[in-house]
Amino acid sequence: MKRILHFIIAGALLCFLLSSCTKGEAWVKVEGNKFIGPDGKELIFRGLCFSDPVKLVREGQWNERYFEEAAAWGANVVRFAVHPSNINSYGWDETFLAMDQGIEWAKKHGLYVIMDWHSIGNLKDGRYTSPMYDTTLEETLKFWSTVAERYRGEPTVALYELFNEPTVSGPELGSCTWSEWKELLESIIDVIREHNPKAICLCAGFNWAYDLTPVAAEPIDRPNVAYVSHPYPMKREQPWEGQWEKDFGYVADTYPVICTEIGFCLEDEPGAHIPVMSTDIYGEHITKYFEKKGISFTVWCFDTAWAPMLISDWDFTPTTQGRFFKSYLQSKVSR
What whole-number distance in Å separates Cα of residue 70 and Cα of residue 298? Predict the structure, then answer.
């Protein structure tokens, strides 16, 4: 009887160890300048930016169809743009419950999730471009420790975008050097790592998350990180490629890069504003450049109101850029 019991215990322990190994292997990881998927192959993220989960809940659009449509467009990743103002007004518990449901829908439809703390401004000095982005370092750490603890066993939530668009453009936003920003990012990463060492942390540069030139001299001193740029069309004049290479693209030769916001709209379309006005020409150039460099991306925004919009109604009718990116994403889906 003792011998049988030992076999049962040993078998249970083996199953536990095997399941733990499998679970560990299910996470996307960084190797060199690439994202590596659970199958051991390079993974290029190509997907869509969702608008704020709370906004979508309030409008009755946070539902499975939203995720199903994203997958049907050819996305393999979606980005949750969590605004400090919305999580505070709706409630942290309620927001995370909504995101829990969203993550289940994402899993069902084969989508990875980028969790994005969607603020714009200077986190060091606590100065922001709009009240909707107001936050503090304390609150930012609270958000990331909550995310990391809550989803520590969930490989679907693969990417943690630490701060959407850092910028110190103009005296009203205070000052912050790259060295100071690097130190701040590393402190956030350390808090995340206490709860979830497997999550990939995404680090953006200044100029509304466009400029990664300082990375050459001072990269983030932590493992399992990737870099973020938002190369909208009017950030530079044409020809774009040489400037993209100098401003952010060169980083992809050494580290993974994911452009978590790209997109465009025509000058006469609703929501047209600097720096997003362009045509399909931008879409053609940016996607070809990304293919050449192995850069991942998500397109802003899978919403009917937040410009540049990908859809014009909740029947998911594509806008001008929606038609372009839907066709492009679907062409990249593995058959």
Answer: 11
